[in-house]
């Protein structure tokens, strides 16, 4: 039942009987996120999680990440897409060639 509920949350319930190879890249991204949060880890590390997501998918992603944060999880996101994250993160760390070049506070009060 938990898996079916998570598929509904991720808007994948209608595709539950489809083979993974027939999923679009955005569907695969949402499935990856579902898999990552399924066991409610304390630390969630995501690399380019909004790749191939449309605006609705990005809004869904943000809601889920904020839910995970509220649950007490620490979420670390690596991304080249700065505009997707800076307005709802607590901290933003900029790196170049493996070195931290700048840190700043994010604005985690964005309405989604």
List the keywords.
112 residues, alpha+beta, two-stranded parallel ribbon, two-stranded antiparallel ribbon, 3 helices, globular
Indicate the topology.
Blueprint: H1 2-9, H2 25-37, E1 43-47, H3 55-71, E2 74-78, E3 91-96, E4 99-105
Parallel strand pairs: 1-2
Antiparallel strand pairs: 3-4
Helix share bin: 25-40%
Q: Which class do the helix and strand fractions yield?
A: alpha+beta
Mean pLDDT: 88
Strand count, sense and barrel status of the largest sheet are: 2 strands, parallel
Strand order of the largest sheet: 1-2
3D shape? globular
Radius of gyration: 15 Å
How widely separated are the two ends? 28 Å
Oligomeric form = single chain
Order of helices and strands: HHEHEEE
Strand content: 15-25%
Low-pLDDT residue intervals, each spanning 5 or more residues: none
Query: What is the number of beta strands?
Result: 4
Tally the helices: what do you get? 3
Structure notes:
The chain has 112 residues and is α+β, with helices and mostly antiparallel strands. It has helices at 2-9, 25-37, 55-71, and strands at 43-47, 74-78, 91-96, 99-105. The chain is globular, with a radius of gyration of 15 Å.
């Amino acid at each position: 039942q938990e898996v079916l509920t998570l598929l509904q949350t991720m808007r994948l319930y209608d595709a539950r009987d489809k083979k993974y190879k027939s999923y679009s890249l955005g569907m695969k991204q949402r499935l990856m996120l579902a898999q990552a949060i399924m066991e409610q880890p304390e630390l969630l590390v995501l690399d380019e999680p909004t790749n191939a997501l449309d605006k609705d998918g990005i809004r869904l992603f943000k809601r889920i990440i904020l839910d995970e944060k509220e649950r007490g999880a620490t979420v670390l996101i690596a991304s080249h897409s700065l505009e997707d994250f800076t307005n709802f993160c607590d901290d933003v760390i900029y790196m170049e060639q493996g070195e931290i070049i700048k840190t700043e506070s994010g604005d985690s009060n964005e309405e989604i």
